[in-house]
From TrEMBL:
It is an enzyme of class 4 (lyase). It comes from Allokutzneria oryzae. The keyword Lyase applies. Keywords: Chromophore, FAD, Flavoprotein, Lyase. One of its GO terms (molecular function) is deoxyribodipyrimidine photo-lyase activity. This is Cryptochrome/photolyase family protein. It holds the Pfam family FAD_binding_7. Its EC number is 4.1.99.3. Residues 1-120 form the Photolyase/cryptochrome alpha/beta domain. Belongs to the DNA photolyase family. Its cofactor is FAD.
Length: 447
């Protein structure tokens, strides 16, 4: 007998519950990946390239026995089932709106069992509920209930857990080549690289709570691209944490929380979670487009904002504190709709994830679950001075400011010689735009 393990956001062999289940269900397992144009299109070159590299790593781990096909999974999976006479198809459950719908259609299109085992989360979205059976809308009580609910230990799986089918009787497609990233350096891909990132983080883990907000320090785990693609399961990480790692556990819970929100409210990927914010006026037109372009390019004249936007372009990743600062700047200083910024992020982030990104943006813009209140407007200067106290982060990504010593780098317009050559003057007046943001907030409050 043969079962199919259809890989999606679980590109690993360790701690893989669906792999264990596929092995229990049949004598042999066929490893399948489907390149789905509907998902690849909006992904952006950095994330696609990271995916292709993950697939190459996975294929190597499987001694070349990963069958890769391209097309609509509804047709492709059904064809593979027929071709190999498979008795079941196994997946890690997908919690996103597109994935859920696609899986329901695939399930209908095949006449064998479609088995969902586990998910990319510590606790499968939809399972942590309030006492009255309704979903949580606020993180802290979710976190309490999530902790009480608990999760299984890691599944013990590896390449040798099952007997892999040689897929060569079907013509697969080659894993696509890397795309041109124009000098961007994205993290190493695959399960080994994920393990390595975790080993590195263990060295600085004791300082995580203290350093996690400091973009100038290597204070966070940088594990997000690996969690995004399932090169590591969060339970593997949770099993390795101790009682002193509360701050880190909380962040992993945040990832579960946003997936849970998206599960219950799939439309919140596109619309304001808090529909009152539909009344908030946004700027558009030529001037707004110009400001948006300056933001995208990291040329706003606000050093911490520019450093963040350029880190995104240089690495396909941005530090969490700086994601909040640049998002606040787009929403509250430039008065643009959060989705414009979110779409730019999704084009460049290697860890770009619909649940964490759209809800991270909505949190900052004020329209999300227990969001930062709209009237709390981040000051990009004091944020810079507080979280990049020596200016090292800014100097790393903004070469025009490299000669400016210390934290003076956060206010280049105050330098004796004026703003250094090549660096823009601030594109807006923060104090004025803050007041404008508050005026607009009054409109929302009045609805
Ligand atoms: P660490 O601090 O080491 O945290 C460990 C893990 O916990 C992360 O890898 C991540 O999986 C999870 N986590 C941490 N903070 C958050 C958070 N605020 N929300 C959800 N999960 C979190 N994260 C993404 O994975 N993909 C995104 O597309 C994404 N977009 C974001 C957009 C905005 C506007 C904001 C404010 C945040 C966004 N985040 C996103 C959350 C967060 O910025 C990243 O997860 C984090 O920076 C990844 O770095 P790390 O692995 O070093 O984090």
């Amino acid at each position: 007998t043969t079962s199919i393990l259809w890989f999606r956001r679980d590109l690993r062999l360790g701690d893989h519950p669906a792999l264990a289940e596929a092995g229990r269900a049949a004598d042999r397992v066929l490893a399948l990946y489907v390149l789905d144009p509907r998902l690849l299109g909006p992904s952006g070159a950095p994330r696609r390239t990271f995916l292709y590299r993950c697939l190459r790593e996975l294929n190597d781990q499987l001694d070349g026995r990963l069958l890769v096909l391209r097309g609509d999974p509804i047709d492709v999976v059904a064809r593979v089932v027929r071709e190999f006479g498979a008795d079941s198809v196994h997946v890690s459950a997908d919690a996103g709106p597109y994935g859920r719908e696609r899986d329901a259609l695939v399930e209908k299109a095949i006449d064998v069992d479609f088995v969902r085992t586990g998910s990319p989360y510590a606790i499968t979205p939809g399972r942590v509920l309030k006492g009255d059976g309704t979903p949580f809308k606020v993180f802290t009580p979710f976190y309490r209930a999530w902790t009480e609910h608990g999760w299984r230990g890691p599944a013990r799986t590896s390449a040798s857990t099952v007997d892999w089918v040689d897929p060569s009787r079907m013509d697969g497609v080659a894993i696509p080549d890397d795309e041109d990233l124009g000098g961007m350096e994205i993290p190493a891909a695959g399960e080994d690289a994920a393990r390595k990132a975790w080993r590195e983080f263990r060295k600085v883990r004791a300082e995580y709570a203290e350093h996690r907000d400091r973009p100038d320090l290597p204070g966070t785990s940088r594990i997000s691209p690996y969690l995004r693609w399932g090169c590591v399961h969060p339970r593997t990480l949770l099993a390795d944490l101790g009682p002193d790692d509360e701050a880190y556990r909380r962040e992993l819970a945040f990832r579960d929380f946003y997936a849970d929100v998206l599960w219950h409210r799939p439309e919140s990927a596109r619309k304001n979670y808090d529909r009152k914010f539909d009344a908030l006026p946004h700027d558009s037109g030529e001037k707004a487009d110009e400001l948006f372009e300056a933001w995208c390019a990291g040329k706003t004249g606000f050093p911490i904002v520019d450093a963040g936007m350029r880190q995104l372009l240089a690495e396909g990743w941005m530090h969490n504190r700086v994601r909040m600062i640049v998002a606040s700047f787009l929403a509250k200083d430039l008065h643009l709709w959060w989705r414009r910024g979110a779409t730019h992020f999704m084009r460049y982030l290697v860890d770009g994830d619909l649940a964490s990104n759209q809800h991270g943006w909505q949190w900052t813009a004020g329209s999300g679950t227990d969001a930062s209140p709209y009237f709390r407007v981040f000051n990009p200067i004091t944020q810079g001075e507080k979280f990049d106290p020596n200016g090292d982060y800014v100097r790393r990504y903004v070469p025009e400011l490299r000669e400016v010593a210390g934290k003076r780098v956060h206010q280049p317009w105050k330098l004796d010689g004026g703003v250094p050559a090549g660096y823009p003057a601030p594109i807006v007046d923060h104090a004025e735009e803050r007041l404008e943001a508050l005026r607009r907030y009054d409109i929302v409050k009045g609805t």
